[in-house]
Specification:
Blueprint: H1 2-17, E1 22-30, E2 35-43, H2 44-53, H3 67-80, E3 81-85, E4 88-89, E5 93-99, E6 105-113, E7 120-125, E8 136-143, E9 146-153, E10 158-162
Parallel strand pairs: 1-8
Antiparallel strand pairs: 1-2, 2-6, 3-4, 3-7, 5-6, 7-10, 8-9
Length: 165
C-alpha cells in the first residue's frame, strides 16, 4: 500500500509539471463478478502525440466518447497493451473513457471474463514508448489477494508473473 501512496504522490506532482511520461494501470481480478477489471490513466498530450506518430492526426477536444476518438483509443490499446493468463490471451472489452479531474489525463476502462485458476500472468505494455524513451508504465495488480506493483518501460515492455496459491 505504501508503494501505491508514493506513486500517487509522484503522479500528482508529475501531472502538474508533466516533464515525466507515465501511465498507471490498475488490474483487479474480481472474484465476485469473475471479471478482470482494468483502468489505465493516460495523458492526453502523449496520446495525441502517439496518434500523430501513427499517422492518425486526431485531436481530442471534450468528448472522449466521440466515435473517432473511442475507436482510436481502442485500436491503440489493442496494439500496445495485452494480458495473457495461463498462456491464453484475454479479450479485453472497452467499456469507455472519462476525463480525470485535471483535464490533462483520462482513464480508460476495460474488462474481460477471468479464468478460474490463475497460475501465470503475462503483461505486455509499450504504451507511448514511441513518444518518449523515458515513458514508464506502472501497473498495480490485485490477484486473489496478491498485491504487486510492476514497472515497464521502453527497455522492458513485458513481465511474467507466476501466481502461487
Amino acid at each position: 500500500m505504501t508503494s501505491k501512496f508514493a506513486c500517487l504522490i509522484l503522479f500528482s506532482v508529475f501531472t502538474f509539471f508533466h516533464e515525466y511520461h507515465v501511465s498507471i494501470t490498475e488490474i483487479h481480478f474480481n472474484e465476485e463478478t469473475n471479471q478482470v477489471e482494468i483502468s489505465i490513466k493516460l495523458f492526453i498530450d502523449d496520446f495525441e502525440k502517439a496518434m500523430n506518430i501513427s499517422g492518425n492526426n486526431i485531436r481530442v477536444k471534450d468528448d472522449l466518447s466521440e466515435a473517432k476518438v473511442r475507436q482510436s483509443i481502442e485500436d491503440y490499446l489493442d496494439n500496445h497493451f495485452t494480458l495473457h493468463v495461463n498462456g491464453n490471451p484475454l479479450v479485453l472489452k472497452y467499456l469507455g473513457a472519462e476525463w480525470d479531474e485535471d483535464l490533462h489525463s483520462f482513464f480508460v476502462f476495460l474488462e474481460s471474463p477471468s479464468p478460474e485458476d490463475i497460475q501465470r500472468l503475462e503483461i505486455f505494455n509499450n504504451v507511448f514508448v514511441e513518444v518518449s524513451d523515458q515513458q514508464e508504465n506502472i501497473h498495480h495488480l490485485d490477484i486473489n489477494g496478491l498485491q504487486k506493483t510492476i514497472l515497464l518501460n521502453v527497455y522492458k515492455t513485458a513481465e511474467v508473473l507466476e501466481i502461487d496459491h
